[in-house]
Every structure is written in structure tokens, then in C-alpha cells.
Design a protein that fits this description.
alpha/beta, about 425 residues
Length: about 425
């Protein structure tokens, strides 16, 4: 290995560009601290995972205490108290109709599990349905199944022959919502016994550019799925645990899903974990004395006891601290702060939902690979703010402990960065 090549292969990183990684020594609250003493505001919750702030004492204590008692045990044929407690807590918070929890270790695996459950349930019922419907611009993860239901493009072009066919709906942009609903209805009527499930990021498409749509659209899509007996899978990996204002985005549309995917904020960003919540009907399709109808899926760390303890601690913080008030304060501040950008000449759109805010810049070469993106990210880091723009979309998605003063600092830096835009 040559001296200019790192031993570590970092995600979503083109090492050939020679941009050095920043070494983080510790983290606390909304800040990351480098080994040379810089304090960087984590304005994107370290890829949307951190809820309550880095190094929250309650989560840290729970991890330490659990590690001293039980770290890991095979979850096939065994169980433990942290997993039982966590499942009960999640189901108590979840939308109505979800009755069972299948643990995994990431958002991608939670999605893979949901897709396999949906298709497998129809198979076990004796009415095979294999078709999956998704939204254009969607992102559901980087495993083969998760890539299949996401937007096709440069990210997954090399693997196109490996991906299964998916029917895509046009994104329900403001003013064009009916187009999406009509397209779904036509699709379901044209192939009444083909589709197993519709998977969506509810209300906000994350990696697709923080695109936002109304709860009414989600409600209408859910109604069509019920009418045509197609399972609805909200991917709440990013939107769950308060990000859109409610505990889960589905609540804002009063939707009762058949399956729901969780990860990211599940452990408040402390440990990797995923969960797929399923309805009783889905579970019952696999419940049998016939071993051939078993749900054949696992990951080695399914139900990891330490991760379960961290997730329980994160949920307990909601009970102990004014988390909802913090979410409301951030949401209000987003709304107010975005006003100053709407009239700017280089801003195409400024939008927010809950603790998620996005500023879409009007540049000739927009999209994820816009040259402006890396320039903006460098600009922000030079001013000790971690923002990772999605091409020409700059978004703010902070930990809930972020103060209003820290939010002002973030928005001030974004404001300054507009000077980089040239037409």
C-alpha cells in the first residue's frame, strides 16, 4: 500500500481526491471535538442518528451496566430482558396495528427484512405476489434489496443487473400530488394480484434531497393500499423518533402501516441497530407448525443486548426530559430562520418539517454531484460547522439538545456560503 493511501476505506468518499479526514477525539452534546482542539457543531446529527446529543450520560450508563451483565447471545431460541423491554416500549409508541418487532443492525437491514416479510407473507398465504412499488428519488439503503427499491442512478449503476424490478411513482411535489395518487391507483388496478407492498419514506425523502410532501398524500396512498390489499411499508429510519415533529411521521397522516422500518435514532446514535415492526397479520402468515414457513432471516447481532439497553435508555430520555419541547423549539426556529433565505436570488426553495430544514440552491449543475456541494461542505467545516449538502440542497438536521444560539450560528454560516454561488 502506498503512503498516500489510507488503510481505511471510508463510506461515500472518493479517496482519489486527496481530501484528508478530520480526526475526532471525543464528542459531547451538539459538538464534535478534534484531536487538535477544534469544536465542530454537528448540524446533521452525524448522518441523522444522534437524537439527544453525543455522550448522553443516561445512554452511556445503560451501555456500561449492560455490558457488565450480558453483551451478546444468539437470538434464535434465546431471548433476554433488554430485548423484551425494548420491544414492549416500541410497540407502545408505534402506530396502531403493529404487534411484533424483528431486530436487526441497520436501516438497510430493517428494509431488507420488511421487503422479505411482505413477499414472504403472500407466498405463505398461497397467493404469491412479488411486485414492489416505491417513490422516485427514494433512498432506502445500500444492500441489494434496499438499493432495488431506491432511485436508480450513478450510485447503483454498476449493480443494475442484480437489482429486482420495481414500479416507481412520481414524487408528489406540491401542486402535483394528484398525479402521484392517480398513478398509484392505475398501477394497482392494472395488476390487481401482482404487488406485495408499497415502500415509502413518509413525508420527507432524505438522501433524495430532503424533498417533502403532505400527510394527505401519505394518507391517500395508505387508503389505496388497504383497498387493493397491498402492504404499506413506511421507512421511518430517518423520519422516526421526532424528526418530523411527531414521534413517527405516520402519525401525521393517521396511518396504520403493515410494516415499519426503524434505525438511526433508535439508540440515539450510540450503537448500530435496526428494527422492523410488523402487524399481527404479517406475523400470522409465518406462524405455523410447518417449519418451511419460518421467516428465514437473521443477522449475527440480532437483538444485541447492549444495543437494546442503549435504545431503552434513549426512549427513557423522552420520559425524563422535555424532548418534545426541544423539538418544537427547533422546528419553530427553522421556520423563522428560513424566512431570510426565501428572497435571496440564489435560493430556489427553503422548506422544513419538524427538526428537518432544507435550502435548495438555484445552480446550473444541480443534483447530488453538483460541484458546489464539496465547496460548500469545505466552507462550513472551515468555520467549524458540520453540514453535508446533498448536491445543491443544504440541510440542517441537528441533535435535539442543540441550542437556539447554535442554530443561529449554523444559519449564519449557511448565509455566508451563498457568496460562493456564481451564475
Amino acid at each position: 500500500m502506498s503512503a498516500d493511501k489510507s488503510a481505511i476505506w471510508h463510506p461515500f468518499t472518493q479517496h482519489g481526491l486527496g481530501v484528508p479526514e478530520i480526526k475526532i477525539a471525543r464528542a459531547e452534546g451538539a459538538h464534535l471535538y478534534t484531536d487538535d482542539g477544534r469544536a465542530i457543531i454537528d448540524a446533521i446529527s452525524s448522518w441523522w442518528v444522534n437524537l439527544h446529543g453525543h455522550g448522553h450520560p443516561h445512554v452511556a450508563r445503560a451501555i456500561a451496566e449492560q455490558a457488565a451483565k450480558l453483551d451478546q447471545v444468539i437470538f434464535a431460541g434465546f431471548t433476554h430482558e433488554p430485548a423484551e423491554r425494548l420491544a414492549a416500549k416500541l410497540l407502545a409508541l408505534a402506530p396502531r396495528g403493529l404487534e411484533h418487532v424483528f431486530f436487526s443492525d441497520s436501516g438497510s437491514t430493517a428494509v431488507e427484512v420488511a421487503i422479505k416479510m411482505a413477499v414472504g407473507a403472500w407466498h405463505n398465504r398461497g397467493y404469491p405476489r412479488k411486485g414492489i412499488i416505491a417513490l422516485e428519488h427514494a433512498y432506502h439503503g445500500d444492500m441489494v434489496g434496499a438499493m432495488s427499491v431506491g432511485q436508480r442512478g450513478l450510485f447503483n449503476a454498476a449493480y443494475e443487473p442484480m437489482l429486482f424490478d420495481v414500479s416507481y411513482l412520481p414524487f408528489p411535489a406540491p401542486g402535483a400530488e394528484r398525479h402521484t395518487i392517480d398513478a398509484l391507483e392505475r398501477l394497482l388496478k392494472s395488476q390487481p394480484h401482482h404487488f406485495a407492498a408499497l415502500i415509502v419514506e413518509p413525508l420527507v425523502l432524505g438522501a433524495g434531497g430532503m424533498r417533502m410532501y403532505s400527510p394527505k398524500v401519505l394518507s391517500d396512498m395508505a387508503a389505496l393500499c388497504r383497498r387493493h390489499e397491498v402492504f404499506l411499508i413506511p421507512d421511518e429510519v430517518m423520519t422516526g423518533f421526532g424528526r418530523t415533529g411527531a414521534m413517527f411521521a405516520c402519525e401525521q397522516a393517521d396511518v396504520a402501516p403493515d410494516l415499519m422500518c426503524l434505525s438511526k435514532g433508535l439508540t440515539s446514535g450510540s450503537l448500530p441497530m435496526g428494527a422492523t415492526l410488523a402487524s399481527g397479520a404479517i406475523y400470522d402468515a409465518f406462524y405455523s407448525t410447518d417449519r418451511g414457513k419460518t421467516f428465514f432471516h437473521s443477522t449475527s447481532y440480532t437483538g444485541n443486548a447492549i444495543a437494546c439497553a442503549a435504545a431503552i435508555a434513549s426512549l427513557e430520555i423522552w420520559e425524563r426530559e422535555p424532548v418534545r419541547a426541544r423539538i418544537a423549539a427547533i422546528a419553530t426556529h427553522h421556520t423563522q430562520a428560513l424566512e431570510r433565505f426565501r428572497a435571496r436570488p440564489h435560493v430556489k426553495d427553503a422548506r422544513s418539517r419538524g427538526t428537518i430544514a432544507a435550502i435548495e440552491l438555484d445552480v446550473p449543475d444541480g443534483g447530488y454531484f453538483a460541484e458546489l456541494g464539496p465547496q460548500l461542505n469545505r466552507f462550513y467545516l472551515e468555520r467549524d460547522v458540520l453540514l453535508r449538502s446533498l448536491g445543491n440542497v443544504v440541510y440542517v438536521l441537528p441533535p435535539y439538545c442543540t441550542t437556539l444560539a447554535e442554530l443561529d450560528r449554523i444559519y449564519d454560516v449557511i448565509d455566508q456560503s451563498l457568496a460562493l454561488i456564481r451564475h
